[in-house]
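Sequence in, structure out. Go.
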Amino acid sequence: MAINERVSRLLEQNRIEYEILPHREVFTAQEVAQTTHVSGRTLAKVVVVREPAGAYLMAVLPASCHLDLNLLEQMTGHRGSVLATEDELRRLFPDCELGAMPPFGRLYGMPMYLDHCFWKASEFFFQAGNHHEVVRMDFEDYLQLARPLAGEFCLHGSKVGV
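Output:
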């Protein structure tokens, strides 16, 4: 599976410059960062959360961080949110390999929250549907295309989280 067609079309239609970085197949965000020699602070990790009413949202945070679900719930005002299951992810992202979802919530009809940790970056890296390629683009271009809601929901370092 190559770069996700939805992402490719979005980037091409908006005339966004990007680069595809191939790498050996790996599955965790930290492994992707190590394999591609990209800082875990600029590589996006997508976590999908199901709110109590059944709606989904996308939380995008650096690969080197963990999600603090309590902070995300405070931001959204929805207590009782849970992580989406693998079956839900397969259904929500049928054109992606499991765990390689692109950080563009609007392409999948869900709100997206981007952690403030990224605002220090000039480049932005993410998986776009598979476990053997990473996309690199300018962070400002990403913000313009993704139009995320901003927030602080990262746990840094060895703190417990997702």
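Check: The mean pLDDT is 89. Residues 115 and 151 are 5 Å apart (CA to CA).
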